[in-house]
Amino acid sequence: MTVMRSVFYVPGNNEKMIAKAPEFSADIITLDLEDSVPPAEKVRARECVRENLKQAGASGSKVYVRVNNWETLMTNDDLEAVVHEGVAGICLAKTGEADNVKRLEWKIEELERRRGLTVGAIAIQLLIETAKGMMNAYPAALASKRVNSLIFGAVDYTKDMRVKLTSEGTEQLYGRHYTAVAARAAGCIAIDCPFVDFSNLPAFETSVLQGRQMGYEGRMLIHPNQIEPSHRLYMPTAEDVEWATGVVKVFEEEGIAKGAAAVTYKGKMVDTPVYDNARQILATIKEIQEMEALRKK
Question: pTM of the full predicted structure?
């Protein structure tokens, strides 16, 4: 599994902000070549991103790069510039269909082989932010074994649907729910949409908790102040870990060891799905602890 509680975006042409990237404790630092970079700055942004792939993740964050979608005719140039040592993943903007992903996989592998990189090491992340992309999210997620996560892009989704983006988010509900379901159906991590009112942290936290109940395990972030609450809210609580530890112990000792399909823990039934959920919680907290230990070195 991969923990992606925080996916923090940095404009690829903003040299000062990229230089500060190691100060941000995000799980993923995404250097952006798409919407945050104006057309006249695309070439310079590619150069800046390529030069800072290793530096951006110096404090332990994994470095992803968001590239322009194939329809822009810029994707190939983006990939030629950034598929180098230091990049952990490529995020494809405005993913429309499975063929977009297959083409991306082919190009990444070609560059890995040409440049002596480990074949298969670079992950693919899909931004689902159009009506077409929404309808094809599940097959797109299955199009490559490299795909590890789907992000719901609410801003472009509402634009494509010709509706107004609101703080209440009613217009986002279908896309937000469906992207999470498609991600989980494909065995991927669901990452929630950016919360644009970045100064309103209470509202942000409320939105994160709503998203968690939809199946989201992380958030696309646009401001450093959103990193800490994302880590706190997407991390299993001490009570969750205590419960999961107890469930695993009881089920393995009283269930699996004795051939029973269900046992009781604190007055409630524990069967295989409950056991698997508890194991998932323990695996998540273990990975988070390992990440944070590496960051402190």
Answer: 0.91
